[in-house]
What does this fold into?
Amino acid sequence: MIADCLADAEDRMAKAVDALRKDLLVIRTGRANPGLVERLAIDYFGTPTPLIQLASVQVPEARLIVISPYDKSSLAAVERAIQKSDLGLTPNNDGRVIRLVIPPLTEERRRDLVRVARRRVEEARVAVRNVRRDVQKDIDELHSEKMVSADDHGRGGESLQRLTDRFVLEVDRVGLAKEAEILEV
It folds into this structure.
């Protein structure tokens, strides 16, 4: 029973780390990356649709993203969504494709992006700790209902803490890698 709780905790903590990775992809680093725009919601005939479903996204050069909509009538909607987003990029529309030129980041903007990344890393740490709290409550409940022994309860709590420490370290590692990427000139 405790093994099931720990397996659930590991799965939920892994999802928190994956969510952080996806979240950090959106933070631009001065280099073109399709992840910057793939999840952008486009108002396509009144339905918010991820850009990746409406267009192909290529990176032909280090500082250029080319978006080719499958349906040319969605070009204006894609352009509007990019302008409204917090990317800070100006789309160049030639009637067939949209080009996004990624300007080099200033030092001040890099520091701002590092702050944003750190905030998201802290949110991921909190998510991992919340999973620990929930699962610890489940383990305590099993013990109070006499479904597990006191020794198993103690070992389960220790295993849960080791699991939490491992995932918090993973979150920190992902955050440090993104910071290094942002600060790279």
In short: The two ends are 51 Å apart (CA to CA). The first strand starts at residue 41 and ends at 44. The chain has a mean pLDDT of 89.
